[in-house]
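Quick one: structure for this chain?
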Amino acid sequence: MTAWISATCGVQYPDTEQPPPGCPICSDERQYVGWDGKQWTTIPELGQDHANEVREEEPDLIGLGVTPSFGIGQRALLVRTPAGNLRGTASPARQAHPRAGR
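Got it. Here's what it folds into:
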């Protein structure tokens, strides 16, 4: 089965045989959907022309993203502190390929 990813917003959905019938985020009237309509992709398809990017934004603040930009361009931020690390909002390719882009 395939974990489908919305090519418009970048949200990944559970493994199914066929793409979901729709995406609640993309169905919102405020969300842009291209002229070709709703498109779906997968991690293997994304890996063909996208790569993970790890960038030091400033000391102890690391940006994790996908290049070229995908979906709504989301990225994760990793804040490193002596008390531990804090990470927010991960991108789909980072979740599937934790070692890619190193």
